[in-house]
Amino acid sequence: MTANIAALTPLSGLDALFLQLESEEMPMHVGSLSLLELPTGYRGDFLHDLRALIGARLHLAEAFHRRLVPMPLGLANPAWMRADTIDLDHHIRRVTLPRPGTQAQLEACVGRLHAARLDRTRPLWELVIIDGLGGRLAGHVGYYAKVHHAAIDGQAGVALAQAMLDLTPNCATCRRHHPSHRSRCPASRSACAQPRHSRRASCAAWPACCPSRPMRSAPCCAARPSRGARVRRRRRRAAPAPCRQRTAAAKPRRGSVRAHR
Q: 111-120, 189-198, 214-223 — which one is most confidently predicted on average?
């Protein structure tokens, strides 16, 4: 029992508020819809391939594993606990649209999916593949992701997206390394533009998706000056330039100096 209690992570007051405010009329999850273009000549089962891909990357994001544990008699906020098993058949599903598979049908399908609440006995996330698209959407599949707001914030959402998506087509096998392999691909401009705490989190959590490179050599992880030094530098830049007195050179006078001068 002591081990089970030690494995619990209490929810913050804000995260618990998202659970308490949730109702059938006002679900508190967030969702996104993406249109993915299938590779030319692709003949595989996209749902099967996606389950295999996510199954190999479950260790990259805590939101994949955490499930809610209610407290006895509801005397305190629920807590997070790591789920022993993840049923990918439940979390990753497929919906096929009837013909002709228009944009309006896709939007109506997403509306129905988004209206359904997540099962609180399981990790609070779902992925739905929507196929059967036709017309100008032919050759694409819909990729609908739904995660409860209590499980992710902005930074965790970025981590979840990085776990599911790659920047290049050649990173599928590289992310299967354990997160203790603290190396990453060369930082892109977008990675270096992230806030300082986000860069530290991503550099410590993500394995390499390109040829291995030590974390300390990545541009975004380079040592930065102290906070005091940065403040002094900003003050120097914001301070107005000192005024310089300009003295005109004395011009030689013509003629002699008279008495009234």
A: 111-120
Name the residue among 139, 144, 118, 129 with its Cα closest to residue 34: 144
Cα–Cα distance measured from residue 226 to residue 229, given in angstroms and rounded to the nearest whole number: 5
d(CA 151, CA 12) in angstroms, rounded, equals: 11
Q: Which CA distances in Å does 59 have to 21, 109, 164?
A: 30, 30, 11
> Which residue type sits at 88?
L
Q: How far is CA 172 from the centre of its chain?
A: 18
Is residue 217 over pLDDT 80?
no
Let me know if 59 is a catalytic residue: no
Give the CA dihedral 209, 214, 218, 220, nearest 10 degrees.
90
- 132 touches 165 (CB < 8 A): no
Residue the block writes with tokens 């994001």: 61
List Cβ neighbours of 35 (8 Å cut-off, separation of 6 or more).
137, 140, 141, 142, 143
Using DSSP, state whether 143 is helix, strand or coil. Answer: strand
Structure tokens at 258: 């008279």
Catalytic member of 29, 91, 140, 149: 149
